[in-house]
Amino acid sequence: MDTLSGLPSVHQLLEDDRGRRLIAEHGRPLVVFAVQRTLQQERAGPLLDESRRWSSIEAMVADMRAPRLRPVINATGVILHTNLGRAPLARSAAEAASLLATGYSNLELDLRSGKRGSRHDAVAHVLCQLTGAAAAAVVNNGAAATLLMLAALTKGREVIVSRGELIEIGGAFRMPDIMRLSGAKMVEVGTTNRTRAQDFAEAITPRTAALLSVHPSNFQVVGFTERPELSALAELARQRNVLLLYDLGSGALRESRAPGLAHEPLIAESLEAGADVVVCSGDKLLGGPQAGLLLGRAELVAKCLKHPLARAVRVDKLTIAALAATLDLYITGRDDQVPVWKMIRADRESLSARAGRWAEGLNLAGVPAEVRSGYSAVGGGSLPGETLPTTLVMIAAERPRPAQLLDRLRLQSPPVIARIEDDRVVLDPRTVLPDEDERLLQAVIAAVR
Fold this sequence. Notes:
Layout lengths: L9 H6 L1 H10 L1 H17 L5 H16 L7 E2 L16 H11 L19 H11 L3 E5 L2 H13 L3 E5 L5 E2 L3 E2 H8 L2 E5 L7 H7 L4 E7 L15 H11 L2 E7 L17 H6 L4 E5 L10 E5 L1 H9 L2 H4 L4 H15 L7 H7 L2 H17 L4 E9 L9 E9 L6 H9 L5 E2 L1 E3 L2 E4 L9 H12 L1
Parallel strand pairs: 1-13, 3-6, 3-7, 7-8, 8-9
Antiparallel strand pairs: 2-10, 4-5, 9-10, 11-12, 12-15, 14-15
Helix pairs in contact: 2-3, 3-4, 5-14, 6-14, 7-8, 7-12
């Protein structure tokens, strides 16, 4: 007790010159918290001298203020990296969101009539123009779009789906779970690798509300496989007076036009093939913010928006602003400014030249580096198994070891996320933004030394 009685009081520390300086910089509530927590730890454990006590308080304040969500440099070569936030926004999209973030907007106000409007109106007309849909709506992600579609259009009735399309979305969110949550009764047909239109036809009953097709955008089944064309399912749905619902996944608005890259079904193609409602993501191949899109027949989209769940999964003004600006790049033919498509279409020559400059800079700084051929991936549940040729920079330093170097790179400012190939850390220029080169090299040099 005698030793503990020598501890300073909270008031004494706050009135100390160092306490006053911390309060001036970080605010009184946070400094009070740090002081109280430090003294509490001392009472439970070893006492600190004055210098270490202040170091502890300052470190606690700094840790509390350090942002947990930070920009990172993506040198993995995975374009739509889910852990890194998927699609980086175009500059115009970021500026549009920033402009609306600091003030008010007509999010749900019709400026012409002065009456309440719909937040979907800000993007629906452009989405319809780009895709040929009769109506469109936006929710907070692709899974929400699927859930809302099924809940509004099929609750309490049967939905027929191929066993080979009962996918698991990232985060262990499985299609059967989504269907169960929506209130639909799932009817599985076919097998994992082969399903035909006839399988769907034989499963239709008076209780059937819809046929559900799910694009396998995050996996591949190869070999002895078969799945019905969307147009064949559309014809069947029309004949039997049921709906055809399509979970497209990636949401591509344009052909990739990248050499060697497989074709990804477009939203417009899916609607032309006869789908009544198509749902997809906004932050994958569309290259916008996280969002889920519903597109299709006007009366069906309207029914979805009238469902109580629509409010629970609606998007905010920042998402609407960023999505509208992204769509504007497509409708004006400037989709080459969408970062995702810049990366996908980057040519081998420019990537090789950039990698060469990186290697030269690293070698001049004493970090052994070599260039080598390699491959990038689209990622993010898009174009599974498809790769793009690239040129990698391999860090040839013996120390630190590759796994340790990866750890060190993540702790730089800004953090650098790389990958290991053939027991070496490699950097892929395809996913490093143009203005990040110098910071990347500085981070690598610091991590190796």
